[in-house]
Amino acid sequence: MADRTADRPPARRPGGRNARVREQILAATVELVARDGIANFRYEEVAETAGVHKTSVYRNWPDREELVVEALLRYVEDLASVADTGDIHRDLVDFLVALAGGLETPFGRTLEQAVQPARQSRTVQALTRILDERVAAMRRRVDTAVERGELPPVDSPFLGEMISGPVHLIVNRGMRPFTRKDAERIVGVVLAGIRATAPHA
Question: Which Gene3D superfamilies match (predicted)?
Fold first, then answer.
């Protein structure tokens, strides 16, 4: 009998299709939250937007808020990263440009609005965790710069607030786009001030 093993299609990896369906559902959730906001997000529209059967949504995420939280975390995970090229000025500028780019999207604006209400839902807690991770990443990068002698000893959380605050102001005000030139000026002024006011040994 001839060996027909070579004629068989490759075996499907377990969970492969389900993984694709999950990605489609998460992408659809991001799209709907960006369009309607978290408060107006309709669980029932996810399946139609994702192009999947509604049972796939309910099977993977029986709880509406769990779906929203996972989609939010997946979408904004890169906001918590700060590169380390060895040039603190450049790394902070790149960080601000990426931050502004994220905040200027419809989804980014939704995120900004979501952290405003004074309520402790799981969604708000997830967004708060993202912000905390971003602050921690900034602190690690600044502390590394201090260890290398790129910067004098500095309160890294304060530095992070000083450089990121203007980004939120410009973007939320919506009067003009945030540019790399803005980022260069902000970082330049803040780092110059830190170096100028550092205590001399």
Answer: Homeodomain-like, Tetracycline Repressor, domain 2
